[in-house]
Amino acid sequence: MIPLAKPWFGPEEEAAVAEVLRSGWVAQGPTCARFEDEFAATVGVPHAISVSSCTTGLHLAVIACGVKPGDEVILPSYTFPATANAVLYEGAVPVVVDIEPGTLNVDPAAVEAAITPRTRAIIGVHLFGFPCDIVRLEEIAARHGVSLVEDAACAIGTRVGDRMAGAFGDVAVFSLHARKVVTCGEGGVLTTRDAKLAELVGSLRTHGADRDAGRRHAEGPAPTHAEYVRLGYNYRLSDVQAAIARVQLERLEAFVAEREKIAAHYDAAFADLEGLRLPPRRAGWRHSYQSYVVVLEAGSPVSPATFMDELARLGVSTRVGTYAVHRQPYFRERFGDRSLPFTEEAADRSVALPLFCGLTESDQGRVVEAVRTVWSGVKST
Ligand SMILES: Cc1ncc(COP(=O)(O)O)c(C=O)c1O
To answer: How far, in Å, from the CA of 309 to the mean position of ligand 1?
Structure first.
């Protein structure tokens, strides 16, 4: 069975972990600090703060934007539920809006139409690694005086012109989960250009500690103790995870280039399949292909369920793209029924195909052949 995704680790990752283990410093420490500096440089922002996941990072981003109970935060419904959960953790209301069918990303016009006096923030999601129209979202957020968060869970390496995802808005959050381009199993990183916000997030992730308090009270140069000045959390990444993530980050360009090559192969091989909507492209924008997601348009020769079943029979793993948050039982019970047609189409008709570094040309060929076989209705033996 060809898997949908697979992390790529080499001897350098193993050596980096061994080095941290031998050092004895396995909780958050110097390796996390180095990783943060390198991550900030990669994204092109002054501050990066590592956290335990993108979900916990989004929670801290929501707090850092000053979101309070009862405030509204606008986000696309077509996203992983974590985007909306981060808003709910603070007792705020996720206002979900529809997407653009061509990009599967949030529709900026729908965002603007949803703004009310209670709106405190907008979360733009770069789904599957393709940029949402973050420049327009920046302009809308600025005009209405609300904060802008980038959910960049899937978007390390994603670019809009010469700006990397993570360098827009007030704060961005990346995921280091196993299905992401750069991974250490679980983990996340916030990036921001705002020094005050970075300091606040650093405190929130470490139990609400004031990191300078010890220095202020100490006689000598070493801090003696911290002061806990706000409600905080333990949302830290460990040095063991950071050691892996540092090596992975060095490979970022090679990882994205390989993903682009596989995606180009699929794009060319599927170009003539009528009704199969391929991932978006836009001149000057870089898709990092965290996932290669196609949409089976209404009228395509097979239903999405049959497509996935038949591909499984031919040894090709697939998965739905992502979810319509507003149709999940928990959200439905709390917020009632909504109708968001493009989100619903994407949730019902999108399929992720195998794409990962190390997917051999022969396995890419098997994926292509299997998709074409199922599409033309020819049952392979
Ligand atoms: C768009 C989006 N946001 C947030 C998350 C949550 O990331 P994590 O698993 O690192 O908490 C994911 C996970 O896949 C995601 O796809």
So the answer is: 26
